[in-house]
Write a structure and sequence with these properties.
Pfam families: Acyl_transf_3 (PF01757). The chain has 366 residues and is mainly α. The chain is built from 15 helices and no strands. 71% of the residues lie in helices and 0% in strands. 44% of the residues are buried.
């Protein structure tokens, strides 16, 4: 990724922290409900919007000029998410077996063997898994995989609107708002609450919004640092205000799109600035690992705390903080030991398969 994406890489870290806080906050002894943390599940939607933005930044031009290679794209995307997904799935399986041997239960729904095939093939957010199980946050990786497979559809629409970014953003915002309303009216719950059953649908309006926001950024909608900072301030004010007033999730998600546009405007050609800070960018790079390990680590940590303190559900501040902060070094280990090296392995295997297929096809055509 170019230096222009450094601020958005940093933003990924804050998205991961928001999601993790949503999950960990109830464990803190005496913690009062906090409205902004209560909306932490929308950190996943922030990731989804970022995915649409970044993939358009990397691939849209090649798609529009006929140089896009779908096979290579899929291999690269698979290499990005699959190794860590399988590693955390295997770790969760090991935890389930160790807990069973010791007469412990991690979670009443964690070991759904009927859901395991869908987990392995990353289709457990497509309505193909009977229940939420194993490393539950991985449902969003399944949803990402769904969007990756359909990227040519998103790219085709986005490329067609490349000269009309305002129209693209307006259409994406309208689509998201109408879909959220229609889904809740028909299903009886919010689309932003969907995981293993409707997660594949949940990513669609967010990914489309990210594509549209990219067009606005590309067209120079945020041309100066002052405008970018103003956009960040307004977006955060809307997000905080909407959370405090308990308004619809659609408004918050649209404001997240505005935040991404504004943070993208903070990028500089020399790769410097607050959001391009080396530490923040590094943490943004390990944010995927943070997201994937926080639930398995939560099980380990709370079980250990329960044995020592006698309670798994109400932890003193220092215990809670220690468990929360420990996610970062664990994620760093997963990032450097599994995510990065195995990404290269998957790419190598995928490129080999693609080469052999192309060779056979060429031989057949002759």
């Amino acid at each position: 990724m170019s230096d222009y994406l450094k601020p958005l890489t940093s933003l990924r870290f804050f998205a991961a922290v928001w999601v993790i806080l949503f999950s960990y906050w109830p464990l803190l002894q005496g913690a009062a409900p906090l409205w902004i943390i209560a909306r932490g599940y929308l950190g996943v939607d922030l990731f989804f919007i970022l995915s649409g933005f970044i993939l358009c930044h990397v691939y849209l031009e090649s798609f529009g000029t006929g140089k896009f290679q779908y096979g290579q794209f899929i291999v690269n995307r698979l290499a990005r998410i699959y190794p860590l997904h399988i590693a955390t799935l295997l770790f969760t399986l090991a935890l389930v077996m160790a807990a069973a041997v010791n007469g412990l239960t991690l979670d009443s729904h964690v070991a759904s063997w009927a859901s395991l095939p869908a987990q392995i093939f990353m289709v457990h957010a497509w309505g193909l898994a009977p229940e939420a199980s194993w490393n539950h946050p991985s449902w969003s990786i399944s949803a990402e995989w769904f969007a990756y497979l359909l990227f040519p559809v998103f790219a085709s629409v986005t490329w067609g609107l490349r000269s009309r970014p305002v129209v693209a953003v307006a259409l994406a915002a309208a689509f998201l708002t109408i879909l959220y309303w229609a889904f809740e009216a028909l299903a009886g719950f919010r689309l932003t609450s969907a995981t293993f059953m409707w997660g594949a649908l949940r990513i669609v309006p967010c990914f489309a919004l990210g594509c549209a926001v990219y067009l606005a950024w590309r067209a120079g909608a945020v041309e100066s640092k002052a405008v970018a900072l103003g956009g960040v301030a307004v977006s955060l004010a809307v997000i905080l205000g909407a959370a405090a007033l308990m308004t619809s999730d659609a408004l918050v998600v649209l404001a997240l799109g505005g935040l991404i546009l504004s943070v993208g405007g903070l990028a500089t050609a020399d790769g410097k600035g607050i959001m391009s800070n080396r530490v923040l960018v590094y943490l943004g790079n390990v944010s995927f690992a943070m997201y994937m390990v926080y639930v398995p680590w939560k099980w380990v940590f709370t079980k250990a705390a329960g044995m020592i303190l006698g309670s798994e559900e109400s932890l003193p501040l220092m215990w809670w903080l220690g468990g929360f902060v420990a996610i970062i070094p664990i994620a760093m280990l997963a990032h450097h030991v599994v995510e990065n090296p195995m990404r290269n392995v998957v790419r190598h295997i995928g490129d080999g398969v693609r080469y052999r297929l192309n060779y056979r096809l060429q031989g057949t055509s002759k």
